[in-house]
Amino acid sequence: MFFLAVFAGLVCFIFVLFVTLPSPEQILTGQRSDKATTQAIVKDLGLDQPKWKQLVWYVNDLSPLSVYEVSTSKLKQVGGLQWQPGTHLVYCVKWPYLRTSFQTKQPVSGLIKEAFKGTMILAFSALLMALLIGIPLGVYAARKQGTIIDNGIVGLSTLGISVPSFFSAMLIAWVFGFLWKEYTGLSMTGSFWEIDSLGEGKRIAWKNLILPTIALGIRPLSVFIQLTRNTMVDILRLDYIRTARAKGLSERTVVWKHALPNAMNPLITSVGGWLSSLLAGAFFTEYIFNWKGLGKITIDALQQSDLPVIMGTVLFTACLFFVVNIFTEALYIWIDPRLRHE
Q1: 314 and 176, same structural domain?
Q2: Same domain, yes or no, for 133 and 260?
Q3: In terms of residue numbers, what domain contains 267?
Q4: 3-state DSSP assignment of residue 203
Q5: In this structure, are 271 and 328 located in the same domain?
Q6: pTM for the structure as a whole
Q7: Helix axes 207-235, 264-280, angle to 10 degrees
Q8: DSSP secondary structure string for all residues of 69-100
Q9: Distance from the first to the final alpha carbon of the chain
Q10: φ, ψ at 226 (rounded to 5°)
Q11: Residues 79 and 42 in one domain
Q12: What values do phi and psi take at 270, rounded to 5?
């Protein structure tokens, strides 16, 4: 119910934003369009109807159970299972219809589906890098508590948390993709898929993933280092750790087999939150590296006032955020059996 309430509020907010921005017919036709063309676009988009009716139609497009007039041009684009019991109305069972782009005339759902692949690859790469480096560094810092190594790791991680992601992205792109390009062989911009030299198809460009992954993963990496380090410092002081050491177990076994598993609960919660943030918040990183993802197409849509794309990406990102958080909560309960009885 909470999700539905928030989603309903988000839909209303986006619709209000939609009707307060410049009229779509002005965006599509420009200032030099004739009156007949403008009126035709207004009628086709339903902008000649009252605002409340436009909101109802918008919700109808998003709903999995929808009703359309037989004469509407949306039926082919909506798809799904359609049933026409009479001569005027068609009932549809479908996926949410996000309408079509003003600029490309392509379905917004198709644009999001294609862009989401790039965002997902980038987000999971950044998260994996942060985990593979952050956890060992956090454990090592905890074992060296109070030494210069510990202070150095904590200091660098604090710096990583403090620096904004867009600044890190610009700095990394400029240094490694421009100044040192002849040594790194990396480019400032590039997507995961590139057209081959013969123009016959796509090929995967793994090297284009390196710099945006580092730029996007710096902040979660720094957070994982400090979270792992602080949790491990507390756990290594507990009685059962001292007992394990007294039994003659190696330090490696004590740390990695007995201490670290008990430090994973807060880390898992943080991972879920960061996964949501990376999937939903990679906008500036994608734009700086020209990485085709949700952020890149959203910023491009904002520049072109392509309202259906903006509305579609915002709604999709919000739903994605909720789904990831629900999955994280379920995983947290599964890992910690004590929560199942609360």
Answers
A1: yes
A2: yes
A3: 108-341
A4: strand
A5: yes
A6: 0.84
A7: 150
A8: ETT-TTHHHH-SEEE-SSSSEEEEE-S----B
A9: 21
A10: -70, -40
A11: no
A12: -65, -40
